[in-house]
Write a structure and sequence with these properties.
Blueprint: E1 2-7, H1 11-15, H2 18-27, E2 32-37, H3 40-46, E3 54-57, H4 65-76, E4 82-85, H5 92-100, E5 105-110, E6 125-128, H6 135-143, H7 164-177, E7 183-188, H8 204-218, E8 220-224, H9 229-238, E9 244-245, H10 251-258, E10 263-267, H11 270-277, E11 282-285, H12 291-294, E12 301-304, H13 332-335, H14 339-352
Parallel strand pairs: 1-2, 1-4, 2-3, 4-5, 5-6, 7-8, 7-10, 8-9, 10-11, 11-12
Helix pairs in contact: 2-6, 7-10, 8-9, 8-14
């Protein structure tokens, strides 16, 4: 049997398939399992996975459709028996791709918020999306179509494989910037911009205030992660230049450095989930996205959010995030979260360490 995993979303969603991938490998030890990614950083994240045989990358977003079709055709010639769209993938383009790849058994999800034009019927096997079920478990339901998983079977952690060189370089970097071995707290203040997700970001001024409070009261060293370099530089300037920009243009550098954090504070982004993969106590700041589906999996964490009647209001679909309010109240689910609330969550997690 040959299986192809279509990990077409960003790093956070792709990472939440990793427990399902491990189960596939454990229960089908002699099977070829490959992956197709359309983000370079997803390919980098999975390139060292012990559970994959090969990983392909098609740059759908930047190259011509003709070139993409040629690359799809090359993969199709490998004649996969099963192809799986990782969850969430609620777009017709993903279902068309799964069909074009030509596997006899094509697995995906049937989404709550969908319609005929999402072309789910192009797949042969659909798992039902369940509201308020974590993305990791949604992926597990998908792979149950080809492997048996007991109802009481423990679902493991998310995993990011780092090689020795990654960790050695990160360790040397941490020792250089933190000779006094201060508490290391990582921030990710950015977010993706697709689907209007800039509104998932907690205010940069509040991140700077939180950073200053952690430095003054906990003697912390603040590391700023993510490729939003301009934003991170602004926050660092507001903290008096006492933080450190941790991310580089190499995604695996960021991952290796993040592993050395003692605490992580993040919006609902990929870095929230990579922190969980490394077992770092994590404070997740949530607005309109569903914390019950996206909390840091299998790690010590606290979610900070406002319990509003309208929130969460964002669901898996191609539609961008919108708000029923306007003016100063627009996206108040995020705007009204205060520094003291997030600091209290940090203190609680540090006490529990």
């Amino acid at each position: 049997m040959k299986i192809l995993i279509n990990a077409l979303s960003g790093n956070g969603d792709a990472l939440m398939f990793s427990p399902a991938l491990k189960l596939l490998r454990e229960k089908l030890p002699g099977v070829q399992i490959d992956m197709l990614a359309m983000y370079k950083s997803v390919k980098e994240m999975y390139s060292r996975s012990p559970y994959l045989d090969e990983i392909f990358f098609i740059d759908f977003l930047r190259q011509s459709k003709i070139k993409s079709l040629k690359e799809i055709r090359a993969i199709r010639k490998m004649k996969y028996d099963v192809s799986i769209n990782t969850y969430p993938a609620n777009r017709n383009e993903y279902n068309i791709l799964n069909f074009l790849l030509g596997a006899k058994k094509r697995m995906a999800h049937h989404y709550i918020h969908t319609n005929y034009f999402r072309l789910e019927f192009l797949n042969t096997d659909l798992a039902e999306e369940v509201k308020n079920k974590h993305n990791v478990l949604q992926n597990i339901e998908g792979v149950k179509k080809i492997i048996k998983i007991a109802e009481d079977e423990k679902i493991g952690n998310m995993e990011i494989a780092l090689n020795h060189e990654d960790e050695k370089a990160a360790k040397e970097w941490i020792e250089e910037i933190n000779p006094d071995k201060k508490l290391v707290v990582g921030f990710h203040a950015g977010s993706a911009l697709l689907k209007n997700h800039i509104n998932k970001r907690w205010d940069k001024n509040k991140y700077s205030e939180l950073g200053k409070k952690l430095m003054e009261e906990k003697n912390a060293l603040i590391l700023l992660f993510g490729n939003e370099f301009e934003l991170n530089n602004e926050i660092n300037e507001m903290m008096g230049g006492r933080g450190v920009i941790a991310s580089t243009k190499n995604f695996m550098d960021s991952m290796a450095r993040q592993k050395f954090c003692d605490l992580f504070v993040s919006n609902d982004t990929a870095f929230l989930h990579s922190a969980a993969a490394f077992g770092i106590p994590t404070v997740g700041i949530f607005g309109y996205t569903n914390h019950k589906e996206l909390y840091p999996w299998n790690c010590s964490h606290i979610i900070v959010r406002k319990e509003l009647e309208c929130s969460p209001c964002f669901f898996n679909s191609p539609k961008p995030a919108t708000c029923i309010y306007s003016g100063e109240d627009e996206f108040k689910c995020m705007k009204t979260i205060g520094v003291e609330e997030v600091f209290a969550a940090c203190e609680k997690l540090l006490t529990e360490k």
